[in-house]
Records
---
Amino acid sequence: MTKRHQKNWRSFFLEGSKFKTDLYAAVFRLPSCRENATKTALLAQLFLLGCKRYPSVQALERKAEEMYGALWDISVVQKGAETLLILSAQTLRCVSKQEVISFLREIWLSPLVQEEAFKQEQVEAAKEKLLQRLALLQDDKRYAAKKSCMELLEGTPMAVCADGYPQDLDKIDGRGLYAYYQEVKERAQLLTFFCGEESEKQTAAELAKALCQEQKEMYSYDTQIKMQPQEVKYGKAEEKIAQSRMAMLFWLQAGTDYETEAANRCAVTMLGGSGDSMLFQTIREEKGLCYYVGAKMIPMANCMLAEAGIAAQDAERAQKETENTVRQLAEEKPSYTKLRQTKSMLLRQLEDAQEEQFSCLDMMVEDVLLGRSAEVQDRKRAIRKVNAAAVKRAAKQMRLSAVYLLCGQEAEQ
Amino acid sequence: MTECKTAGEQCIRYRTAAGLECICYPKREFGTKTAALAVKAGGSTLCYTANGRKRELPMGTAHFVEHMAYHKPWGDAFTTFAKQGAYANAFTDGAKTVYYFSCRKHFASNLELLLSFLQDSVFTPQDTQAEKAVIEKEIQMYEDDANWKTYFQMLRGLYPADGAGAPIAGSEASVREIETEHLYRLYWDFYVPQNAVLIVGGDISAQRIFQMAEKLEGCGEKPERIRTFTQEDEHVEQAEVLQMGLRLPVFHMGFRHVAAEAPSLMRQLSMEFAWDILAGISSDFYAEALQNGWLQDTLSYGFVQAEGYAYSFLRGQGVQYEKVSELLLRHLERLQKNGVQEAEFERIRKKRIGQVLRSLGSVNGCVMGQAELSLMGADLTEAFRLCKSMRREMVERVLQNEFTADKMVLSAAR
């Protein structure tokens, strides 16, 4: 990996000669805040609709097809206390680098604008698309339970939904959105990444230069979310569904270093990271309370999400069992064999991720945001070093912060 | 043994004495190793003959076996995969069940375990009863999945009189009917080497894998499926709109096609080209539907063929699904009348070549991509060659001959 730092942009190269594709990504760092969430989500939708050179979805797609079916996207991702607007393209290696960079540049720097405002018809179309997307997401009950659970943590960046809010859309017009776009261009730090062959490593910097314009004072970033010492929040809603969904959030021990993350990850994985995990074995296999149950870390948030699909009448039991399982891990040292298995699973996942371009990118982005070395060996070393005491300590520091239940039809019976 | 090289990638095929087809994609530059075992029995395997006897099974039997196949005389194979450092999983679709794992170490032990799925799984009445509760909860989960519900409603409309429309996991009632003997029936008849394909990718020795696979002994005869759906019974039934309290309606449009004797790669690819041209993001249909605000952009489509049935579908989200289906038929008619533009065809060819090369470029892409081709007796290198040699007239013929409005079903949920 090589780094280069120059003013408001930084570029990174990821060795990727084993892949048949090249991956280009431009990441705009935005502080996560409620007031800008919908504008950011809307910007992404707007850029997906076209630019001056490719003024429609059809024109954009035709260009992507010409580039052997390039996979390109502009998306919004929540990483801890930051929201990232990510413009990316994955193309076969035979596609010219300059062609891809110029394609991404057209999309980002030449949107459909009229007199210092985005064209109103484009904005309206983007709003419609965003509304539909939000409705679709909300119809996904697992997503809905998770989102509502996170919203219980009011006052923390966790509660901000990067997908946007339908109620904000009426207040946004082409001029206001254009002003926000200008602000993002001027103030957001730009990180560019290129994953490809060593001989092309300068491509990341070329991408940054192609996208970066004159900048003003950069946003300030507070990347880490800190644990909020507050009482557990509960939420519940009823919908017409066959299976109830439970989401529980736990704060984890704080720390951005590889060692803390590795201990947290081991604890979370032992709890609910596989079919062999404690939650799966207890709640599904032993008690037969659900079809799915699991736990995972929320990236860069020092938080664990445990979720299950259950019958409404079993919700309380499932919640208690989850808490008991966390307590059990905190009280009893994990067996040597179990810990060894968990660590080898995490190491394998890490190594597998190195063989998938988007996963490589994701890990690198987190490392850059958290100011870590971005060396895979450091991550591996931290995992290998985790011992039973560290897992116990991590489990002991898990604090239940929110519980949300989306109830189904059984609740009414 | 046959060996093919294309676009810098190698594919080695071999059939064991017992009839197990093995397909290997050696990829020295990757550390991960993935193997999949595809058994040709799925959700529509409900009625067939084996050894001269007709068998009938409750809906959901193949999927039930998928859950239970991990039960071994010595313990749980799923846990053993985990202990041996492998990530393991399985899925069942209409025509096949696929078990797979990926690992970096202990590959031989894990492969041996995977191959044992064709030999010694054990189903006890107690385990069968316990698993019913889990599967019932799985079915409940699908009940909230509008995509799943509309897809199977569409299939029931396309094949109202037979098993092709059966839900893969079955219904809560059919799962209650399943007993240990049903599981063994399907297991003994279908879980035999000559009815399965082994696919392996990564830094592996194909020779070593073939040697291991050779140890499996054949048993019984390959079962012959009875087609409960007949060519005479080709009528389709329109579906009702499901009321699911959705914020955004979800729909599937399905076309019933003439079933071929056996699935073929050429038909698969020419249908995929045809769908790209008809309804892909770059198509005029899509542009018009989007312009009118009738569609969300997460449109998808596909062509599915197996022994005895063939259908294709388009899935979308939007309030105006009826208008979308009318629009699609109008654009179909236009293409049938005017043909396909050469430039458009060449663009789609490039896209398809790109897709195959992407699959060939990763271990998981090779193995899972190959699993999808396993019923066709084809491999990814052939897919690459056929994409390159595809002719516009072939796709035009597909558009003209394969699609008719009276064989279309619209299935929606609100």
---
Amino acid sequence: MRSGIRDSMGVRVGKGVNYALLTVVALICLLPFVHMIAKSFSGAVAVSAGKVTFWPQDPTLNTYRYVLQDGLFFSSFRNSVIITGCGTLIALAITTMAAYPLSKQHFRGRKVILLLYVFTMLFYGGMVAIYVFMRTLNLLNTLVCQIIPLVLSQYNLFVMKTFFEGLPEAIEESAHIDGAGHIRTLVSIVLPLALPSLATIGLFYAVGYWNSYYHAMLFVTRPDAKPLQMYLYELITKTQNLFEVDPVIAAGLSSSGMQAAAIVVSTMPILLVYPFLQRYFVKGLTIGSVKG
Amino acid sequence: MLKVKPVRKQSFIMYFRGNWALYLLSVPGLIYIVGYKILPLIGLQLAFKNFDLFAGNGILDSIFKSKWVGLDHFEKIFRSSNFSHLLGNTLTISLMKLAVNFPLPILLALMLNEVQSRVFTRVTQTLVYMPHFLSWVIIHGIFMTLLSANGFVNRALGAAGLAEIGFYTNPSVFRWLLVLTESWKESGWGAIVYLAALTSIDEELYDAAYVDGAGYFKRLIHVTLPGIVPIVSLMLLLRLGGILGAGHEQILVMYNPTVYSTADVLSTYIYRIGIGKLDFSTATALGLFESMVGFILMVSANRISRKFLGRSLW
């Protein structure tokens, strides 16, 4: 905010144009989603005729009724909830535990451990290697094999470490003088201060798990172990087949209306949580990542 | 008040006694890294072997018992025309994305930085960050309904008497679809880093420039832009370091056989021959090539950045 500075007429017009352009950009981000929502609430005939733009035509809840009653949708939704819930908790715990010692300059072995994390961040062993890993441990077609790959992101680890490094040393020193060990200091003094960072990183992990389908594509073939994203992927790419399947048409549904409903339902959890965490993650993102 | 700790050489045993908890805390992360990231690297020997699933008892044993063939797989790969084609696709898509999607977040950040209304900024930011949180599957679903043959856009084109565009079937158009859907997903999110740099520019510099009679554009060129040059250079270097990553998660979801000719990249091909055809040896060899080149590029980018910009990722 440069309140002291007065702008010329031309610049003021330019700023008006800037507002207009930004509004267009924001609408481009928003409208495709509004179109989906409108479609999901519209009657099959209107959807098939392409009449729906940004407002539902012949409003109906049939699509949602159908999607929510689909056994595969339910099981994949449940799988994704379990994977996201367990995965995020484990990931947060491991990341915090790993980051704390690394934030201490005096921690012996720090350099070696950091090197391990950096190396594994940069060198990808390849999909065959991890496929063999899962197959050897008999983890194919389980939920565990979808949790393991994302359980520690080095990037998040470094963000957390940078946050810990930024805490004033005096706080922890006074805890040590009071006789608290490292673990008690971490749990009762450092973590409460780190709540915004934990929320940010927790959001990143949760979104990562909720949205992941790549590892399911590698490891999962059994329908009842599939995550939500895979269910959606199959729903979207198999449109043509769905048209031939009778129940859909019989129920008075269009396949694209159904897709829209499934997409809306699976995006809701993220869209409901994210605006509340926005103010945290902007901060969380910028303190970490880049070392000055 | 900072207390300076006395410098003394403590034996490791003494140090460990006082700080065992730090090591205990490190254990889960280390188990994960060593167990899941380092140990599976023994599978890389497949690149130098002819994988025979039935050579041993179980897949791991089979890997060890398969026959060594030296660099045969690499020779075969580098000689095939398919390889240069895949590498070409990878680099083309990557460079197209670089050309479009690298400047966009910077531009967006500069635009947002000019906005004085807090409410407007908040609302705009919320909306432009949102697509980052959607999965490629969902984005694919959204754009399919908009851009497929009987989607929203093609119907509108038809109504206006214009020719349909095969966004998903025309090989050269599909590349732009990849570029622009990535713009849609990541431009807003990418702007965060630059916005942070912009807001940390000292206000007094602007005031001083104003007093010196610098107009809006002079202030932009002499104050704003120099303020973000370091972070822009760093981001550019990192992007160049990751040039072999054309975005395989996105392509894997969005492509289809009609556009393989322009959209099949190294990693999607590896997925198809590895998991699809179970040709583990070729998949591993190709993956190893990709990983090695990627690793070298990233390390070089970081080194260059540290030397010339004084900033680095690690």
